[in-house]
Amino acid sequence: MRIGMLGTGMVGAGLSTKLVQLGHEVKMGSRSGDNPKAAEWAGKAGKNASTGTFAEAAAFGEMVFNCTHGADSMAALKMAGEQNLSGKILVDVANPLDFSTGELKLTVSNTDSLGEQIQRAFPGAKVVKTLNTMGVEVMVNPSMLPGEHVAFMSGDDQGAKDKVAEVLRSFGWKSVIDLGGIKSARGAEALLLLWIHLYGKMPDGRFNYNIVRAKQ
After folding, report:
1. What's the rounded Cα separation, in Å, for the pair 129 and 184?
2. Residue 178 lies in a domain
3. Of 24, 161, 165, 210, which is most buried with the most CB atoms under 10 A?
4. Distance (Å, rounded) from C-alpha 130 to C-alpha 212?
5. Residue 132 sits in which domain range?
6. From CA 138, how far away is CA 144, in angstroms rounded?
7. Residue 127: strand, helix, or coil
8. CB 97 within 8 A of CB 45
9. What pLDDT digit, counting tens, does each position of 163-196 carry?
């Protein structure tokens, strides 16, 4: 499958590398077509890796991942172009975090979410929120952690969620919980606040959540 990756940071690079290893063609997009981080990644990732602008990556991908900083996501997606996203699955991994005041907070919460804002702004896209509640090492290699642990998913299009779940299973995810429509992204994004505080108490980011159920 052809994948458009929006974002050149740790998450974008980590997911892109994993997808290339699984045999997908990945074009990493950024504001400019000559981004040095993107070029460095493509040089290491092999023949199925390429780079371009946000618009070029979005046009290239059959599925598009938003791995930009949450505060910049709307601007990046506008640069990607509504016409390049329409009809496609848009996997939103971003979190609307703000550290500008020195205190961690969400730029949107309770009555809205970044996932919902993206879906409203790009109604032709099929937005699926997932993988935003963990570090990138766990995203791409869930088997590094012992026992069962979960990835959450939100979105209004069931077919899109089914296809994203297939990609997650190819990463090694065994437990994917569908939270429901894109409105449920409010909970998934808020959960990242807890992850940040836990991260401060852990040796590193290699941890995740599990849901323990009562025996039936």
Report:
1. 9
2. yes
3. 161
4. 20
5. 2-199
6. 7
7. strand
8. no
9. 999 999 999 999 999 999 999 999 999 999 999 9
